[in-house]
Amino acid sequence: MPRLAARVSRIDSSGIRKIFDLARSLKDPINLSIGQPDFDVPPELKRAAHAAIDAGRNTYTLTQGIPELREQVRGEERAVTGRDWTGEQTLITSGVSGGLFLAQLALVDDGDEVIIPDPYFVMYKHLVRLFGGTPVYLDTYASGFGIDPAALERAITPRTKLLLINSPANPTGRILSRAELEAVAAVCARRGVLCVSDEIYRHFAYVPMTSMAAVNSDTLVLVGHSKSFGMTGWRLGYACGPTEVVQAMTKVQQYSFVCAPSITQYAALACPQVDLHPHIDAYRAKRDLMVGILSKRFELAPPDGAFYLWAKAPDGWTGARFVEHCIANNLLVIPGNVFSERDTHFRICYTVPDEKLRQGAELLCRLAEAKPG
């Protein structure tokens, strides 16, 4: 049997994927675990994809992405962040996950420290470890899941390379205000720390949302089409940031992904034709439905965006034990220790039909009445 690389032992299998696999073994569960939109790819994008296939757009593209799409996303960045990124500062990636992979591989050396606000998206710490870095967790529970600049300053050492932020956030739904971002940017600028801003949920914002790139030029911003347009399996996103960083990521992409999927790139040229407001309004209503029912029994984080609720387990329960209790009753949610160094919470995803949501919320309230065994 071949000997595996030591780096593989630094990471664990995804706790989220374990729940997904479990879902397949249950009969018609109430599934509030899957973090992806429940709407299909819009017709405009399907037609554009079909047209790309028929036109023979099935070969490799430029590593950095087709020029038309790069120009389109540069226009989006001008509108959202006010940044006029150049072509050399723009890279089309295989989803935001692909962008995170390229960024970590291009930036993290053995022993480098990467500050990760806790709770965090599950992939962050594992990528840091995979590439030889050390995750440094910045606890945000006491600050309402914001980032305390003084705590950030204390966490920075001579080994600190990056700060990873996610706003709107998975799993808390928290959006960092412009003032919070400016305070964080001031610390990063003073201490020479590059900020990597994961904005995959940028379009799913229910309060005003500011990009870190709008207040800090020394930011690598990662944005995705996959969640926004219901095409998570199509794997498309982009990165904009300092020239040296993006060019290094482009070099790494040549020897890994090669390029983002060609058909998806051409299909995404139709994204400006799609009106996302009906979906965003629907998710806002779903959030309000869930908060209205669950807040009577659970302590909930303020969900400003994305499509998750971060709920504290009932008294006497750890997050993991309460999730086991839920699964035993045919209800799937994700244990909070997948996203945090604490085991006190669990994550709910509300991208399911309203009737299922109501059933799930009412069942959660009933399950909260039980005492731990």
What would you note in describing this structure?
- The structure is a single chain.
- The N and C termini lie far apart (43 Å).
- The protein has helices at 15-25, 43-54, 67-81, 95-107, 123-130, 149-155, 178-191, 212-215, 243-254, 262-268, 277-294, 319-328, 354-367, and strands spanning 30-31, 90-93, 113-118, 134-139, 160-166, 194-198, 219-224, 237-240, 308-312, 331-332, 334-335, 345-349.
- Helix 2 (43-54) crosses helix 10, helix 4 (95-107) packs parallel to helix 5 and helix 4 packs across helix 9.
- It is globular.
- Strand 5, helix 7 and strand 6 form a beta-alpha-beta unit.
- The chain has two domains: 6-41 and 276-367, Aspartate Aminotransferase, domain 1; 56-271, Type I PLP-dependent aspartate aminotransferase-like (Major domain) (Aspartate Aminotransferase, domain 2, 3-Layer(aba) Sandwich), CATH 3.40.640.10.
- With 373 residues, the chain is an alpha/beta fold.
- Helices cover 39% and strands 14% of the residues.
- The chain is built from 13 helices and twelve strands.
